Structures are given as C-alpha cells and as structure tokens.
Automatic annotation (TrEMBL):
Record flagged with keyword Oxidoreductase: yes
Domain Flavodoxin-like fold: 3-185
Species of the source: Roseibium aggregatum
Lineage: Bacteria, Pseudomonadati, Pseudomonadota, Alphaproteobacteria, Hyphomicrobiales
Record family assignment: Belongs to the NAD(P)H dehydrogenase (quinone) family.
One Pfam family recorded for the sequence: Flavodoxin_2
GO molecular function, one term: NAD(P)H dehydrogenase (quinone) activity
InterPro entries referenced in this protein's UniProt entry, alphabetically: Flavodoxin_fold, Flavoprotein-like_sf, NAD(P)H_dehydrogenase_qn
Protein name (database record): Putative NADPH-quinone reductase (Modulator of drug activity B)
A GO CC term attached to the entry: cytosol
Domain of life: Bacteria
Keywords recorded for this protein, A-Z: Oxidoreductase
Amino acid sequence: MTRVLVLEGHPAKGTFCGALAAEYANHAQKGGNEVRVRHLADLDFDADFGVSSFKDAKPLEPDLEALWQDILWCEHFVLTHPLWWGGLPGRLKGLFDRILLPGMSFQYVKGKPLPEKLLKGRTAQVLVTSDTPGWYFTWIYGAGAKKQTEKQILDFCGLKPKGYHMFSPIRGSSDEAKRKMLARAAALGRKVA
C-alpha cells in the first residue's frame, strides 16, 4: 500500500483535469492504496508570495497548512493541471511559491551550490491537459513546462519524477478520445506501487 496525494491543480471546478484526477485517485484506491485528493479551486489562500525574501514569508493559511501536512504524509504525489501559455496556471504556481519553502521542502547548505532536498523518499507523477498536441509541445516548444515542473519544482525538493503524461489535444476532441484519456489516467492510478 502506498500513501497517495492527488493535487488537482486547475483553478476552476468541473474540468477535465478534475475528471482525470478522479479517475487516477479512484483506481489507485481500488488498488489498495490510501488516497487523499485536494482541489486547487477549493483552497483559500493568497497566491502572491509578495515579499523579496524567504525570511519575510507570510504564514501559511489553514488550507495551505493542511495541504503541507498531506505532502508530508504522502509517499507518491500526483499533480494534474492544464497547460496555460506554456506553463502552470498562475494560481498553481503561486501555491508552489507559498508552500515550498526553505526549511520545509529544501534547505540551503553553506558552501554547496544546490540545496538539500527535504522531501526525499517520495515519488511524483504529473498529468497535463493541453490543446497543444504532445508532439508539438515536445519538438517545437521544447517541453519547457515539463522541465520546470519535474526538475525545478518536484526534483528540486526531492520528489522523484516518475512520469509526465500529456493528455491532448483537449479542444475539439471527441467523446471517444476523452474516454480513452480517462482510461489512461485510470491505468496510471492502477500502477501505483
């Protein structure tokens, strides 16, 4: 059994990202894993870091504190989000700015160029919806959001990336294509180990 946290990172409710997160979570739970799901749209917090240094960071709101406890609890972190303007939605990026802080998720070490990863021992998967075809995202755009999310956010803190999965194109896709995408998310949920 694995403790799984699914963060559905779309800033609106009732989205296809939400449906993918639900399929993943449902099938991970059916596989005997303990699963918690959080929805960005339900979290009440100020997404603006708003200061110039970490020492001046404002205290976490109750919803962010609860999410932080879920991150500490989990062994496998799953993020679903839409690709907007080649990256994360602003509110989701703001969540990471606010919650992934030194002393909590990473720690600077004197004399070393890179910080210590304080969330080691956890894995992560990312499920991304996009109107951009996956091949175009990779070969033309250079998969910048993938690099940022996997390397500069997750792995920076110690969450070992175990897959970045594109679900696209969403706009104009048939009901059958969407059913296949949901089945793919369910299959990923069943593979949690």
